[in-house]
């Protein structure tokens, strides 16, 4: 329900909707899908209000057999895997060797190789840290574990049971997310991320939310519902709709769990 006092604030091209969900005070905003926009929108939220925590939800692509269409991933950490040191074509020392993907067989590739770089985390009064994996708040993960077994939406029309997924979606705890400013559909690179980093899903925003939250020393949690399989190349209108519906359902239920008697933010 929107606030009767200040239902929204328009700032930096975004609408920050103020109200309650399950009797918990919340601010809901679409920060954008690209990493620069996500960072900017999230930081404005911190600057605007006294935020207790960030719940980031939306869709993602699976790079693991453990995540099927409609499932909601609740990872323990996420990495920004778009920060590369691209080496010369003479170097063979990079983690990602493009020649390994030559067809019909591996060989030399003029693209050379690339190493994945850590990101620098700045927090007030502390030395900066170089991190690859950005951890999700452990206390919030413990609360989220109570969502185990929550029934997710399997069909677009649940009454007639039509336009359904082939599997029964579940909440999947643990695993790792990979974020980059790339919308990934390439199966070979998806397999590389899974094998090299044990990533289970990919998206374009979670690492940005993680970095902003850790910088501001505020807990955060991620609920990323699977709309497509990068490796299998499967997706569809039903999976996109149901991924959105399931990520929202899990986020709302989590808000209910953490809400009483606490508030997500104070104003």
From TrEMBL:
GO BP, sorted A to Z: nucleoside metabolic process
Lineage: Eukaryota, Viridiplantae, Streptophyta, Embryophyta, Tracheophyta
Nucleoside phosphorylase domain boundaries: 6-255
UniProt-recorded name of the protein: Vegetative storage protein PNI288
Gene Ontology MF terms: catalytic activity
UniProt cross-references to Gene3D superfamilies, sorted A to Z: Nucleoside phosphorylase domain (3.40.50.1580)
PANTHER family to which the protein is assigned, alphabetical: OS06G0112100 PROTEIN, PURINE NUCLEOSIDE PHOSPHORYLASE
Source organism, top-level taxon: Eukaryota
